From TrEMBL:
Pfam families: Aldo_ket_red. Substrate binds at residue 117. Keywords: Oxidoreductase. The active site is at residue 53. This is LAME_0H19064g1_1. It comes from the Eukaryota.
Length: 292
């Protein structure tokens, strides 16, 4: 099947999510609206923000502007994700924070997907945050809910909670050819939890990797290492969320949909025994593995 920016996966509740997203972490606040608007004009249909990023308002304005300017477009054409900051760790704090996020994007009416950005330290906090998300989901103001940086143990905790009414649809965590997290991916697939890959470009740290460069020279002339990494994620069944503020690179990243990596090359690219985290200081899954 030919892939396009509008190609979707179906979440367990029936919501359609585009297979490639644009991450806006560290996008300058004063430039975010322009970056997102440009990306939407290029064909992106999935934007990934967060309370922690401080640019939800700008993303919402860009989506609203695009929908107004683009003939024949509707709200269903753009998928918007935000994330609940783990500092909002009580039920009331979480409810208040979600209301603020909804207010910041009031021009687009609702949030397609809201994730817990990173697990709070205490079980009661994690479950209180989920309780709040469930309520907004049941009201229809959020169309799907999920988690980010959750380990297998934390997913089991949530799925086994007696107060669970809505199962998580998504788990977002860092993945790349040198960071596979096989057990976590296998568990998510078994439970029907769609996997999103943040930092699929290794924060740029391995874009000059000699193996990638040799592979391009041998089999994919004209492609970039970023396109190879994004395509790898897509063929692994993940939803990659590359980020860029450069118009040319935004378009180039979309072109990862235009080719396929052979089975042989996928095998060569996939390093099951490595554990390469692009920012070791931020790896909640490993940091709290023994505790959780």
């Amino acid at each position: 099947m030919k892939l396009t920016p509008a190609t979707t996966k179906t979440l367990k509740n029936g919501v359609k999510i585009p297979i490639l997203g644009l991450g806006v972490y560290k996008a300058p606040k004063e430039e975010t609206e322009s970056i997102v608007y440009t990306a939407l004009k290029q064909g992106y249909r999935h934007i990934d923000s967060a309370q922690f990023y401080g640019n939800e308002r700008e993303v919402g304005l860009a989506i609203a502007k695009y929908l107004k300017d683009e003939p024949g477009s509707s709200r269903n054409d753009v998928f918007y994700t935000t994330k609940l900051a783990p500092t909002n760790a009580t039920y009331e704090q979480a409810k208040s924070a979600i209301l603020e996020s909804l207010e910041k994007v009031k021009e687009i009416g609702y949030i397609d997907l809201c994730l817990i950005h990173s697990p709070a330290l205490e079980k009661t906090q994690r479950l209180d945050m989920w309780k709040a998300l469930q309520e907004f989901y049941e009201e229809g103001r959020i169309k799907a809910i999920g988690v980010s940086n959750y380990s297998v143990l934390l997913l089991k905790e949530l799925l086994g909670w007696e107060g669970l009414k809505v199962e998580p649809s998504v788990n977002q965590f860092e993945l790349n050819p040198w960071l596979l997290r096989l057990d976590l991916c296998e568990f998510c697939n078994e439970k029907g939890i769609v996997i999103e890959a943040f930092s699929p470009l290794t924060r740029g740290k391995r874009l000059d990797d000699p193996e990638l460069l040799r592979l391009i020279e041998k089999s994919y002339p004209g492609k970039t290492t970023a396109q190879i990494l994004i395509r790898w994620s897509l063929q692994m069944g993940f939803i990659p969320l590359p980020k860029s503020s450069n118009e040319q690179r935004l378009l180039a990243n979309l072109q990862s949909l235009d080719f396929e990596i052979s089975d042989e090359d996928m095998k060569q690219l996939t390093h099951e025994n490595d554990y390469y985290v692009s920012n070791p200081a931020f790896d909640p899954i490993k940091k709290y593995f023994d505790k959780w």
